[in-house]
Amino acid sequence: MAKIGKRTRAAREAFAGKEDLTVEEAVSLIKSNSSVKFDETIEIAMNLGVDPRHADQMVRGVVGLPNGTGKTMRVAVFARGAKAEEAEKAGADIVGAEDLMETIQSGKIDFDRCIATPDMMPIVGRLGKVLGPRNLMPNPKVGTVTMDVADAVKAAKGGEVQFKAEKGGVVHGGVGKLSFDESKLAENIRAFVGAVSKAKPTGAKGTYLKKINLSSTMGPGVSVAVENAIAE
Questions:
Q1: Where are the coiled-coil regions (predicted)?
Q2: Closest listed residue to residue 175, CA positions, set 116, 215, 142, 207
Q3: In 3D, which of 16, 38, 66 has the Cα closest to residue 175?
């Protein structure tokens, strides 16, 4: 049996028996029990009553966190001409067309969000097997296939988070940094939960929001009362 370190044991003891907390209680518990030397990400995992293998039960969307993510987002844009210039002026880190496609095909993916103008999709479509598994494939449903590339770049840079139900109906994402004020983290968490709640698909049956867990990058998770996480 693997030996449990002192830090891990202490964290587990602090979290033991604590379930269905308020958002504020969970954030306070996580912040007070972090012992690592870097600014951890606060992560949310939501268990939904859906089966994403069925098209009418897929959950996906985007949410602008009111207090940002605390993460520097690198944005790549597939565009030509005036739209390429527009993307660069808006702060895109990488802009290109066939050259960008070749860079990605070579295995170099140095970005966190990929945006494309509609006319670029024949090129981007060739990268589905590379970008798809990384949840980087541009999609009009989340605003990453658009002619408004400047707005899309600014939104990505400003704290916009994409979410998508994975196998088992779990949605997860980063909702801020440990260094954020507790009130700002709570606001971000409720914004994320609200967006997922509004994205309820037509095929969902029974209880939709089943369970919510919060954790830090290196810490254990704690469950949050679903009703408390939904903003009024």
A1: none
A2: 215
A3: 66
Entry pTM: 0.83
Q: What is the pLDDT of residues 67-81, one digit of tens each?
A: 999 988 999 999 999
The pair of structure tokens assigned to 116 is 């494309």
Q: Return the pLDDT at 40.
A: 95
Q: Tell me how far apart the alpha carbons of residues 105 and 100 are, in angstroms, rounded to a whole number.
A: 9
Pairing, β 170-177 against β 41-48? antiparallel
Please check the confidence at residue 138 and state whether its pLDDT lies above 80: yes
Rounded to whole angstroms, the Cα distance separating 135 from 221 reads 24
DSSP 68-104: --SS---EEEE--HHHHHHHHHHT-SEEESHHHHHHH
